[in-house]
Specification:
heterodimer, A: 269 residues, mainly alpha, MetI-like fold, 77% helix, B: 6-stranded mixed β-sheet, 5-stranded antiparallel β-sheet, 8 helices
């Protein structure tokens, strides 16, 4: 803490509380209230109901939730796999290639997701790669958008791991594949699970590119929320958002538990 | 090349782009022998070890193991034991799994591998630590595990890259003792020991290869290099010798340092009248308030626990500004204050004439080094 005197701390805390309330807590509180309200014509909502939450968990909305979870799982897994692979491959690549590929892999962070969506639509709307109208184009869009983050997470962890681990493993007689499997990947595991968590969180919330490319049978929950809001069904949208929030949190908790379990006990055979 | 060479470097050079990390390096290590590669950082000693282990590919030259050319052989097929500076114990594996790593990589049967791991744990006195993880061990214990892991595959050659540099002073001294014992218990292994610490090199090595600026400078037995250093660099780096300008009086090694005559050891018959450098170890120099010796001024005094390190500036000796020498003395009783005149007494025996020039860079640096030549030695 930079400020030591007790009297000076109070205004700082008050300022922080005010900013936090307005930016984070208030929208969340309103969301929860709206999800549970029968009507909202006054300052406070009138009436309490769980009907919106109920409908958010049934029918089309439930299907949307499952689509979102599957998309996040597939895109997250693929992003960690491809990101780790890219990080490992580029660590051994010549400098010019490493720099070029590094820039390319970070590109999706810099360009708006709508542009990614449009790009994919244009690219995959003709044979032989006719993916427009299938769920694959949604999965590809999510992979492209989260890959940068998982690559960045793993490759920055990789630079902190000394080469000598792999060298010593090789000197002990381990072939490169065994060095990868028994030394390099286990040492990267904490970074890989962090990358997976980030990828899942980002994918669960993605709407910009998805809305450009999704087919009717593969609508993610954020798109549903958008559609509901668009049609003026604010309470249903709030309920669906609450479900989205809960599902994302549960997914991250599970992922965190799995990775913590793996890293504290080690991955001893 | 000798029949019993476990390791042979044959004119090995390693370049990284424009930088030459190792130049024309040749060295034989016999089975059962320990050779220290000693030099300051950037001298190429670790690069030599990496070339032997297969971690870097020589730009030119050959590396041989037991007479076989292994220059293009990948590390996992060389079968060497390697211990690196920070040990590189696999953090996700237990001590036993770390030690058994090489055995598993070689597909040794489980029972046999477990037995070998036990044997190695016993060798390094870590029997009770097999189930621990590396992070639960102290620095010294990690070091023992790293050595056990390297020895578990029964390598013909053990490579140690600054293995004690991560330890504190007391532990380093203890581990040095242990390494020496271990060396004596392993008569069939050739050991290449990379260090920048002269004490480690003198304690462990049968022979020392002094390296400087990517090249092998001097190679001899530890005692030989210490007593009769072939170059000014080695004289200063190994034991921090003072280098005093001297004039040869006769071929047997009698030299004049200013007005004082010293019987020194010489690498060969000397040319009377030639200008040479005399290497004098700090602990052999005496400093008195008065009496015989070279006239000097006491310019510095440092208490070092067991002794005092004095710095004295000897005027004259054909050096502009005089020559600064270090002396280690057990007591400063009877010595005047810093800044007062004193007498510096050189040992009558034990000093050595250094034939080859070279920029001395450590505490023994005798000021500006004047051009020396081999003409001093006939």
């Amino acid at each position: 803490m930079l400020i030591w005197s007790r009297s000076a701390r109070w205004p700082i805390w008050a300022l922080f509380a005010a900013v936090f309330l307005v930016i984070v807590a208030a929208p969340l509180a309103v969301l929860v209230a709206a999800a549970l309200a029968t009507e909202w014509n006054d300052v406070l909502p009138g009436g309490f109901t769980v009907a919106h939450l109920g409908s958010a968990l049934t029918g089309e909305n439930q299907a949307s939730l499952l689509v979102s979870l599957q998309t996040a799982a597939v895109a997250g897994l693929a992003a960690v796999a491809v990101g780790t692979w890219a990080a490992l491959a580029l660590a051994a690549a010549p400098r010019w290639l490493r720099k070029g590929a590094d820039g390319l892999l970070h590109l999706p962070v810099a360009i708006p997701s709508v542009v990614v969506g449009l790009g994919l639509l244009v690219a995959y709307s003709r044979p032989p790669l006719l993916l427009n109208g299938t769920r694959w184009i949604v999965l590809i869009a999510h992979l492209v958008l989260v890959l940068s983050f998982s690559y960045a997470t793993v490759s920055s962890a990789l630079t902190r791991i000394d080469d000598s681990y792999a060298q010593v493993a090789a000197s002990l007689g381990a072939r490169p594949a065994l060095v990868l499997w028994r030394v390099r990947l286990p040492m990267l595991l904490p970074a890989m699970s962090a990358a997976a968590a980030l990828a899942v969180a980002l994918s669960m919330g993605e709407v910009g590119a998805t809305i450009m490319v999704y087919p009717p049978d593969w609508r993610t929950l954020p798109v549903t929320v958008f559609t509901l809001t668009d049609r003026g069904r604010t309470f249903d949208a709030a309920a669906a958002t609450l479900i989205l929030l809960g599902a994302t949190l549960v997914a991250l908790l599970i992922l965190g538990r799995v990775s913590r379990g793996r890293t504290t006990t080690g991955v001893s055979p | 090349m000798t029949e019993s060479s476990a390791v042979q470097f044959d004119r090995v050079s390693v370049r990284y782009g424009q930088v030459t990390a190792l130049r024309d390096f040749s060295l034989d290590v016999a089975t059962g022998e320990t050779v220290a590669l000693l030099g300051p950082s950037g001298s190429g000693k670790s690069t030599a070890l990496k070339a032997l282990a297969g971690f870097v590919r020589p730009t030119s030259g050959r590396v041989l193991l037991a007479g076989q050319d292994v220059t293009g052989v990948p590390p996992h097929k060389r079968g060497l034991g390697v211990v690196v500076q920070q040990y590189a114990l696999f953090p996700h594996l237990t001590v036993a799994d770390n030690i058994g790593f090489g055995l598993r990589a070689r597909r040794m049967r489980r029972a046999e591998s477990a037995r070998r791991v036990e044997e190695m744990l016993e060798l390094v006195g870590m029997e009770r630590y097999g189930r621990r993880y590396p992070r639960e061990l102290s620095g010294g214990q990690q070091q023992r595990v790293a050595i056990a892991r390297a020895l578990a595959i029964r390598p013909p050659v053990l490579l140690l890259d600054e293995p004690l540099s991560a330890l504190d002073a007391q532990l380093r001294a203890d581990m040095l003792d242990e390494l020496r014992q271990l060396r004596d218990e392993l008569p069939d292994i050739a050991i290449l020991y990379v260090t920048h610490d002269q004490t480690e090199a003198l304690t462990l090595a049968h022979r020392i290869a002094v390296m400087r600026e990517a090249e092998l400078l001097d190679l001899d037995t530890a005692q030989g290099l210490y007593r009769q250093p072939p170059s000014e660099f080695t004289a200063a780096f190994l034991g921090g010798a003072n280098l005093l300008p001297a004039t040869v009086r006769d071929a047997n090694g009698t030299v004049d340092v200013g007005a004082v005559t010293v019987n020194a050891m010489a690498p060969g018959p000397l040319v009377p009248g030639a200008h040479v450098r005399l290497a004098v170890r700090p602990h052999t120099i005496g400093v008195r308030r008065d009496g015989p010796g070279l006239a000097a001024v006491l310019t510095g005094l440092q208490w070092r626990g067991a002794n005092y390190r004095l710095t004295c500036l000897i005027a004259g000796l054909d050096e502009p500004g005089g020559v600064s020498v270090h002396a280690d003395v057990p007591s400063v009783d009877g010595l005047p204050r810093v800044g007062s005149p004193v007498r510096v007494r050189l040992p009558e025996h034990g000093a050595a004439v250094v034939a080859r020039a070279g920029a001395a860079s450590t505490a023994g640096d005798a000021g500006e080094s004047s051009p020396q030549n081999l003409a001093g030695v006939a």
